[in-house]
Amino acid sequence: MTVAALPISPHPAVDGGLQLEVTNVSPQTDSIVSITLADPSFRKLPSYVPGSHLVVQYGEEGVNAYSLTGSGNAPSEYAISVLRVEDGAGGSRAMHRLAVGDRVYVSRPRSAFAPASTATHHLLVAAGIGITPVLSHARAAAERGTTSSLIYVYRPGSGAHVDEARELLGSALTECSNRDSFQEVLTEQLTKQGVGTHLYVCGPNAFMDSVLDQARAAGWAEARLHSEAFGAAELDEGEPFTVNLVRSGLTLDVPAGVSLLETLEKAGKTIPNMCRKGICGECVLPVLRGTPQHRDLYLTEQEKAGNTTMMCCVSRSEDPEMELDL
Amino acid sequence: MSSVSMPQVAGNGLEPGFRGVICASFGAAGDTAEQQSDSQPKLDLHFEAATPQTLSELRSVLGSSSVGVRLFLSGPTADIRAAAAVAAECGLHQEEMTLLSEEAAPRAIYCPHCHSTTPTFQPAGSEVPCQGCGTALVTTDHFSRRMGAYLGYAARVEEAS
Ligand code: FES
Ligand SMILES: [Zn+2]
Fold this sequence. Notes:
The complex is a heterodimer of chains A (326) and B (161). With 326 residues, chain A is an alpha/beta fold. Chain A has helices at 91-96, 131-144, 162-169, 179-190, 205-217, 260-266, 301-306, and strands at residues 18-27, 32-38, 53-58, 62-67, 78-83, 103-106, 121-127, 147-153, 173-176, 197-202, 225-228, 241-245, 250-254, 284-289, 292-293, 309-311, 316-317, 321-324. Chain A contains 7 helices and 18 strands. In chain A, a hairpin with a 4-residue loop joins strand 1 (18-27) and strand 2 (32-38). Chain A starts with 17 loop residues before the first strand and ends with a strand. Chain B is elongated and about 55 Å long. Chain B folds into 2 domains: 21-102; 107-160, Rubrerythrin, domain 2 (Single Sheet).
């Protein structure tokens, strides 16, 4: 039995989900592989909102989230692309070992990067493996007859889904191989979009922050901006902050590089948790004051904007101080 | 991406890709010039009322502007609501629009007869009964800094005498 074979029991994070079979494995680049999953008895799979992700279990213990690359409309299979992260927890390496016929437990698709229904045009911006959810948006837009354009930054020779993007978008695709050319294209694109345009960005955090900041500076309202974090592998250590636990009257310092969850556990608090990477939704905490820096994949955009809850395993604070209902 | 074609909007002088501030006023409303936009290019539009024609003009102005644009609407509530709905259809977000309803704040009308002031939502030229003495006052556009109110005058001389 390989690591990739179906574990004895599903991880709680994928409980109530699906048991799927690997139907195709095809390398995109040296480090990115596309994996197609289908129901073993050919049942139809649940449709999903463009930009959704799937939580996939690996081994007995691990779960990871991967963006679905299809349009989501009545899918017969689910396709994900996985970048091998050498120093990660092993999830991506296990995924790269999957072979046709292997079975995996997956969650139902989850939407946390949905297209705006009022958008008349989608401006998509992706760096590296960030192409995956954005490809889903481009496909869905094409199916629905909405226009989209894509700025795709990747290192020459290591771009996944380049051919599909070219075919799908034609002249609406701009490929960039370095920061300078990207910057030029971005500046131009941010100032010439029709008023119904929404922006969607996926890539490393620093990349997304820079794109979003430039959009804001160009007058883009917050409601037009959408972003999707990669997940735990890419998270930086963050800024230190202080947290006040109102009910227990405790004040704790959360240093850079240490999660809020770890800090609370060290202080003797028992917080339910499973994945510890912002995927499962177990570790949710009520926020009384302050603005969380949301870095999870679980909460929806609306929930994140509400700032009344946060996932303490990955999310931090935008402000030096925050108050929790604990 | 879809190209933006410049519609023929007579006399609004709008550059394609406009990203400044559009101030559209309706009816008798004064212009919205007090919206400070020194740093940004500004386009003033004035319409008598929100009619299918004027709304389609607004639509084409918005259609040729770009994300980053801000819209100020002033005038009677019904007109600016209709204009805001058109702007939303064009893809503008609530946070990009400012609605300055004439009816949002009453104007104080000064009575020369009894020196009291009467709040009203009526535009200039309409008649309101004075709260102090009951005289039918015609409202004006003349704001008296000294009185801190718009000046009214008696609609019928015999009442004021
Ligand atoms: S433990 Fe899974 S989201 Fe925090
Ligand atoms: Zn009076």
